[in-house]
Write a structure and sequence with these properties.
Two copies of one chain form a homodimer. The first copy, chain A, is mainly alpha-helical. Chain A contains ten helices and no strands. In chain A, helix 4 packs antiparallel against helix 5. Chain A binds a DNA duplex through helix 3.
DNA sequence: TTTATACTAAAATCCGATTATAGTCTAAAG
DNA sequence: CTTTAGACTATAATCGGATTTTAGTATAAA
């Protein structure tokens, strides 16, 4: 089958899963909506779960892809870190299925889907690690244990996710995120933590 | 009724809710286990939900109380911040009902219980704010916007909770938390972020 | 290879009957 | 005046069996 057609199936499935959830989406209807035979779907994916996982995977890949793109556009490590966070949170609302995992009452939280969610987390941590390493090499950051630092920051960023997804007042949380970046970059104790003029998020 | 008896009812309820959950705990059995008449419970609490909320409230109060105690034992603001985080995570496993809210599939997540959970979060943020204010006044911290800073840190700490509760490898996450504290206190950019000798968590 | 269709076995839904339980009430005991 | 045991009700949960949906397979034709 052409890659194009396969992507189309995933896209249709993505919409259906986002609207109805895993349980209430059925393959007969998906086949009809995607204008392929049911057998074709089973030929390619093998099971309903696999279709669902392919959707989650695509959503995760999109987030990672967008983050990497945005980082490439920045030259300085601190700004790369800021770009990562901004892009991540901008992309999140598009990954409806992946993020409903966090919010929903476990409706469709099972080992494989959780694995994809965790995988996204650890990929983010890896990217953070790359940024920190570059920052260290170029003299921007001073970090004793880069692996610990990147994981710590990964976890900390996670703390903003739930409310970002649920709240009306996204702007305000954006504000907190901005400030959080300032804090981890400059620290509470450094005298210039007052000045948000250099690495500021607009 | 004596306060003592009332507390005993809450304690028994706390164990039953922790073991069986809100739905599978029934008031007849609770009355029996707590050795009071069912009417007494309804006299005091008015409804099953109110009993449950009283349990959640008590768990939240215990966490806040322990945090405040631990902070009082520290003299320096940075150490107070560290004490807050350490105590919070040490106390968390005791608050079984409150924390199952995070993990469970919404089984017993309804507006009132979420409100208590959020209340705990904002109380933590207030305490952080107090610490930051003291740290600013005494020249330890340099923070432009204390309110933003305390909320940011509150959210960031939240990011460690889920994995702390779920994972086998609590030590490792402890490690991340330690490092996280180092980062926010000293910042990625400050040259002494290497040295973890002063404000170190043992 | 894809498609339409038919097929099966397992799961979900439905529904009426039964049971369990939240919450009220009362009368007696402390 | 409060607590208690027990009776009581109305609603919600459970159960079991019949029915329907649906995941997944098989087949034959395009």
């Amino acid at each position: 089958m052409k890659q194009e057609k396969l992507n189309y199936i995933i896209d249709v499935a993505r919409n259906m899963f986002a609207r109805y959830g895993l349980r209430k989406t059925n393959i007969d209807e998906l086949a009809h909506m995607a204008r392929v035979a049911k057998a074709t779907i089973y030929n390619y994916f093998g099971s309903k779960d696999s279709v669902y996982l392919a959707v989650l995977k695509k959503e995760a890949d999109e987030i990672i892809g967008a983050i990497l793109d945005s980082i490439d556009k920045e030259a300085l490590p601190p700004e790369k870190l800021i770009a990562l966070v901004k892009t991540k949170f901008n992309q999140m609302p598009k990954a409806l299925n992946l993020l409903n995992l966090e919010i929903d009452g476990a409706e469709n939280r099972y080992p494989d889907s959780i694995a994809i969610r965790n995988d996204l987390f650890w990929k983010e941590v890896e990217i953070i690690q790359d940024i920190l390493e570059e920052g260290l090499a170029k003299g921007f950051f001073y970090i004793k244990n880069i692996m610990l630092a990147s994981k710590s920051i990964g976890y900390a960023i996670r703390g903003f996710e739930r409310d970002w997804l649920l709240f009306d007042s996204r702007d305000r949380i954006d504000h907190y995120l901005d400030y959080f970046l300032n804090i981890i970059i400059k620290g509470l104790m450094s005298a210039n933590s007052n000045k948000t003029d250099r690495f500021v998020i607009d």
